[in-house]
Write a structure and sequence with these properties.
about 15% strand; Rossmann fold; binds NADP nicotinamide-adenine-dinucleotide phosphate; alpha/beta; 7-stranded parallel sheet; globular
Length: about 250
């Protein structure tokens, strides 16, 4: 995509969670490139401010809001602060997520709660905080970032995959709930992607990616481009879709 492409994001405001790294960072930069005022959120202030700096250096508008997201209060506080900074939010990207892998029998209740808090509870209450206002104005787009392993069983990914499967069902439920009032809610389901978060997986990421027709991991920009599509009016008739951006993994 080039900045001359009319993606109808000019003048809109966007909130991207987990935008200090990987897919979220690429998404924040791409939304800003297409004219959105972007709230970059994450926990790491240094990396957050760096993303803002890069967006501004490229001529875009961005603000960093530090947020440790784990419950309703933290989600609602971020929504309120973001709205204060850039005005009513037109685009919400629920990207922040954690993905610890491991055997079910070695998973503690604390691990379980941590994954469901960040991957399910926080998106739930960000939507609760922002979708009604979008619906009141009759427009808005929400993009949830899920995962290919929400679609099929993979040993070691029960906890993570199930949390994102919940987010996929929420995507469809919210499409039914808010779609009639002008808010489109969709999801992008990425396959293995090279990010700061998957760096330590090394060759295991390539091994996972080898099962798909593309045969390689994605780069964050390839996921971000699809998120921007679902956030923009170019997808104006797309509601409640789970878009696989996985190199073809779920197709074969
Ligand atoms: N990479 C993949 O292969 C892949 C594949 C499928 C789906 N996904 C999904 O795509 C999304 C992004 O993945 P990624 O690999 O780009 O992630 P990443 O590099 O690990 O970055 C995660 C981002 O989420 C933020 N975050 C994590 N926990 C948070 C919390 N409690 N409160 C606030 N922010 C929090 C991090 O903030 P700080 O760094 O500032 O702490 C960071 O900005 C996730 O939802 C992931 O499940 C990734």
């Amino acid at each position: 995509m080039s900045s001359s492409t009319p993606w109808e994001l000019s003048g809109t405001s966007a909130l991207v969670t987990g935008a200090t790294s990987g897919i979220g960072k690429a998404t924040a930069m791409a939304l800003a490139e297409h004219g959105a005022r972007v709230v970059v959120s994450g926990r790491d202030e240094v990396r957050g401010e760096q993303v803002v700096k890069e967006i501004r250096a490229a001529g875009g508008q961005a603000y960093f809001v530090r947020a440790e997201l784990h419950d309703e209060a933290s989600a609602r506080a971020l929504a309120a602060r973001a709205t204060e900074l850039v005005g009513p939010i037109d685009v919400l990207v629920n990207n922040a997520g954690i993905y610890p892998f491991g055997p079910t029998e070695q998973t503690t209740q604390q691990d379980f709660d941590a994954v469901y808090d960040v991957n399910v509870k926080v998106p739930f209450f960000l939507v609760a905080a922002l979708a009604p206002e979008m619906a009141g104005r009759g427009r808005g787009a929400i993009v949830n970032v899920t995962t290919v392993v929400a679609q099929f069983g993979l040993a070691g990914m029960a906890l993570y995959g199930s949390s994102k499967a919940a987010l996929e069902l929420l995507t469809k439920s919210w499409a039914a709930e808010y779609g009639p009032r002008g808010v489109r809610i969709n999801a992008v389901s990425p396959g293995p992607t090279r990010t700061e978060g998957t760096e330590e997986m090394g060759d295991n990421l390539d091994a996972l990616a080898a099962a798909a027709p593309a045969g390689r991991p994605a780069c964050p920009q390839e996921i971000a481009d699809s998120i921007v599509f679902l956030a923009s009016q170019r997808s104006s008739f797309v509601h409640g879709a789970i878009l696989p951006v996985d190199g073809g993994r779920v197709a074969v």
